[in-house]
Design brief:
Length: about 210
């Protein structure tokens, strides 16, 4: 079994950092330099890591698995949100969507790269690590693609809904939305995502 330290250092941190970097890069290319000016257009993990969301939460969620209380080694966490100002974007409705989808698309790209490489590794440890990286990045991407604020997929709502709906979307595009997503997860309403994640991973050869 892969150790939590190995997963965290080699899989979790790169997945989160590259996800956030993609948001910052997309915003910068679309006309908003806020993230660059605040030092977030970087691959330096220290600029993106949130002590609670990136370190404490994943470690606490791992304890039940390590103690044998559950058979699910699911690790969940979050990084510091990348700051951006929609008013600086050329076409805010479209560009908000592009900025938000940049993160999940980065994770899909990472999963694809690992899927292409996994067949060439000989070490069982490396094979398991690559497979974990594929599943984790697919999980981050597919989960975040759900169009529910504040998940990244909510950028689609900004692009397709009429302007009069924006205040309503913005109202839950914060901690309120986090609670909503948490409730949906615990009610099992998002369990169908597991089949999608494993289905895509199987299609990739894992």
């Amino acid at each position: 079994m892969l150790s939590i330290a190995l997963i965290f250092i080699c899989v979790v941190v790169p997945a989160i950092v590259l996800h956030e970097f993609a948001h910052a890069w997309a915003a910068d290319k679309l006309g908003d330099s806020t993230a660059r000016r605040m030092g977030r257009l970087t691959l330096n993990p220290l600029k993106h890591i949130d002590p609670v969301g990136t370190i404490l939460v994943p470690l606490l969620l791992y304890v039940p698995y390590a103690m044998g209380w559950t058979k699910s080694p699911i690790i969940f966490g979050f990084a510091k949100p990348v700051p951006f100002n929609p008013m600086n974007l050329g076409c805010p409705k479209r560009d908000i969507m592009l900025v938000r989808l940049a993160g999940p698309l980065m994770n899909i790209a990472i999963a694809f790269i690992f899927a292409q490489a996994v067949g060439f590794v000989q070490s069982p440890l490396a094979h398991d690590l690559f497979a974990t990286a594929i599943l984790l990045n697919l999980g981050l991407a597919i989960f975040n693609m759900i169009p529910i604020p504040p998940l990244d997929g909510s950028g689609i709502l900004y692009a397709v809904l009429p302007a009069k709906m924006m205040p309503l979307i913005a109202r839950v595009d914060n901690f309120t939305g986090v609670i909503l997503v948490f409730v949906m997860l615990n009610l099992g309403w998002l369990d169908f995502l597991d089949n999608i994640i494993y289905g895509v991973a199987h299609w990739m050869g894992v």
